[in-house]
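Example A, followed by Example B.
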Amino acid sequence: MPQELSRKIRIAFIIQVVLASVAIMTAGYLVAAVSKFSLVSSALHEEAAHFWQLYDASPAQPPPNTFNLRSYLVLRGQSDLLLPEKLRPLAPGFHELKQEDLLVLVDVQPAGRLYLVFLRSQAEKLALLFGALPIMLTLIALYMVSWLTYRTSKRLVSPVIWVGEQVRRWDPRRPDVSGLRPEELPADVKGEARELAAALHGLVERVSEHVARERDFTRDASHELRTPLTVIRVASDMAMDEETTPRVARSLQRIQRAGRDMEAVIDAFLILAREAEVEPQSEDFDVAEIVLDEAESARALLVGKQVDLEVICNAQPRLHAPPRVMHVVVSNLLRNACSYTDAGRIEVRVEQDRVTVRDTGIGMSEAAMVRAFEPFYRADPSRPYGTGLGLSIVSRLCRRFGWKVELESVEGVGTIATIRFCA
């Protein structure tokens, strides 16, 4: 999404503001809860000290009585019956009477006892007032700073977001990088964002040129290879019409078969070089016929080996695709089986939804299985045949036509390769 970065920044700032607000409010509440009684206690002690100063100057001084404060004075030797009953049992010091909603200070001096009574609810109101105001001011300042910081951050990342929007609009097959040319960039795209746009522009141009060269080479090479193949096929056909020895006839047949295989490989390369949306020429074909034909060609690779090759057709599946692609896929699997099997058996089974090639060859280790479809990788480099491209080509062709290739192998036991027509 083009606004993903901006959205993440916005969410980060919102989370930051929410967490900071909760922390400030919690701290304010705790401070108010702890300090409200200590503030009232300190104020009452100061009030009591002030009263005794006035009393020493004039014993006729009455105890303080205000809207929030009630006072009672019991001189030494006098009875406390005039005191409210709830105050009589209180010892000297500060007391909280929750049921009566009172805060009481009992101050004892040589002249007598002074009872200062403050409403607990008034203390909470004062604590809330003096606690809430700083919290509100702090929160307002926090919100303003966060908003300004968010606006600044958004403005700083907006060029990167613009570059991301341009990249998002590209067609992966033919990316249009004209909008990232230095002369086409908006004025606010500066610094690192301008360097990023220039780097992307240069990278895509180089990649596009590389892909174009690769496609042109594949197309031109495939076209040029067809000419000598045509000459070989025509010459071998003419030679087949002449009277020849059985040995020469077998050699000519092998030449013709190799020519057809080469043409199939060229067609497969052209299919892989085309765009995915360009449909190749396809037709309905019998999978079993192709398997039987490729098995006959593969027998030539087993000359001199004690290996039996058997084809078992349990079904006659038909597919709609280029037949030569199936030729290439089956041919590569059979060639691998023949190359890595020195004795035993190779079995090819044709089912309704798959073709399975099973051999009793050298097999593969778990490490080799992981790299089996990598180009140019060979499980046994000491073998004289093979380039390591067969399974890579099979994998790419199967993906191109929605098939699925699977490998099962045990080192020293053999390998099972399966092509499933329904991935």
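Example B, a separate protein, is given below in the same form.
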Amino acid sequence: MIGIGARRSVALALLAALAALARTGEAQAPHAPAAPLREARGSVHRVTAKGEVPLAGNWVVLHRVGSDLAAPVDSVRTDAAGRFAFRYRATGDTSALFFVASSYGGIAYFTPPLKKPVVAGGDADLLVYDTTSAPIPLTVRGRHVIITAPDTGKGRLVLEVFEVSNDTSVTRIAGTPERPTFATPLPEGATGAVAADGDIPADAVKFENGRALVFAPIAPGVKQFSFHYRVPVSKAPIAFPVLAAASVLEVLVEDTQGSATGAKLKKMASVNLDGRPFRRFLAQDAPANSVVTVIAPTQAGRAFSTRIALVVVGIGAAMLAGLAASLMRRGPLVARASELGDADPDDVARKIAALDDAFEQVENPTADQRADHYETRARLKARLTSAIARRDGL
């Protein structure tokens, strides 16, 4: 078996070979006008309980993502002050994106795309974190539960979305198989549970013994993940355990006669999605160890798309303004829910660029528009991070 150090040595050798090939290709094309040099200068700092400290001697990799080529371009080690610098040419596909990544403690961290010819600090800086498998506290900032009308005479679709926050200075990683990074129970009778790709990859979410178990590392900040399952129509009412307190708890029940009680839920104005009525219930600071009881209709309706269902979660976005503000401060991490299933790095990178271009055309955006933009951009960036990390074996 090849050790971790050997694998890294091979990877770095490949990176060097790719960079050499790129330089050779430029030298062999004397008649083509040379693209102007670009620069990325930044630093890598490790976050500790006492503040940020420079991370010296850590490998930093410059990545390129374009329709013609998606690969690492160059790599350097940080100096004693944690600083690094790249000089490169943006050749080939003009819509290609470049960004910088660094791995620490087995976890990869990425910058936003380097859009300007010279990026110094800010978008070129990286924060990395120590890791721990200790049970450090995670906070549920938001939990959204969507219960649809039966799409058959026997079952209905339920979608759950969590926003989980790590408010410490270390990245929590899974310990043994019995110690996931996060866990939540499913209602009794739930079957066919499936996770969706998002800030946390779908394959890092397992379903065992009536629970959803997350085994992905959770770095400081907020991560969103979702899953759906089916419950039989005969299971009425439906009881949803709320083991962890939630800053915002939202329940949507399809049909104007549905109801949800418990965990400090209050009835809000009903909403319509794709011509389908939902009753909406909302709670702030939902207490731990409580139960939400849902009475849902039994009359069959049309089949409900989980992609459409994910969009419903945006209804409660205004309640998470503080969450959006923290994402704005840290820069982009993560796609609108309808895009979460797209795992191609090139497509996700182009969506980030298109999203930025569209937002730049908005004059005097409102607070809600800014929050929506940064939340959407955050999810796209995390999607890009996940896709590239999988592709490059990070």
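On Example B: Residues 76 and 301 are 58 Å apart (CA to CA).
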